[in-house]
Amino acid sequence: MEAPSRTKGQVWCRNEEEEANLLTQFDNDTLTKVGPGTLMGDLMREYWLPAILSTELPQPDCDPVRLRLLCEDLIAFRDTNGDLGLIDNYCPHRRASLFFGRNEECGLRCVYHGWKFSRLIHGEKGALSRIKMLE
Ligand code: FES
Questions:
Q1: 116 CA distance to ligand 1 centroid (A)?
Q2: Among 43, 100, 119, 130, which has the highest number of CB atoms less than 10 A from its own CB?
Q3: Total structural domains in the chain?
């Protein structure tokens, strides 16, 4: 039996045929990187993704929940009307974590300077209306 040899990609291969069947670094990155702006990340964002159980946000204005989905740190919350919201963990003002925000009066208020984030845009449901709740 031939001893494995180390290749450029730091992968152990027994022979050239096995080495030829390996994915290139580019192919591997294309298939496995799912952050915003990546090929696979953009594709995955076209589909519904299970994120958390609705029981984790049991009642209106309950504590928000942290989650990580497709390499993004997010905060899920249930507003005063019982509707779900999902926003970036980091406040766009000074990047404070909205996990520590106050969930009040139909929105999540950043505790640092008080900016408030609603699931409504100009009184209408925006992109967040795409959140589906499965019981
Ligand atoms: S950091 Fe959130 S309002 Fe300033």
A1: 9
A2: 119
A3: 2
Give the pLDDT mean for 30-35. 94
Contact 100/111 with Cβ under 8 angstroms? yes
Testing ligand 1's pocket by substitution, the residue of 75, 91, 97 carrying the most ligand atoms inside 8 A of its CB is: 91
What is the domain range of residue 58?
A: 54-130
Measured CA distances, 48 to 44, 99, 107, 132 (Å): 8, 23, 24, 8
State in Å, rounded, how far the first CA of the chain is from the last one. Answer: 56
Whole-structure pTM over 0.90, yes or no? Answer: no
How close is the Cα of 60 to the center of ligand 1, in Å?
Answer: 23
Place of tokens 């740190």: 73
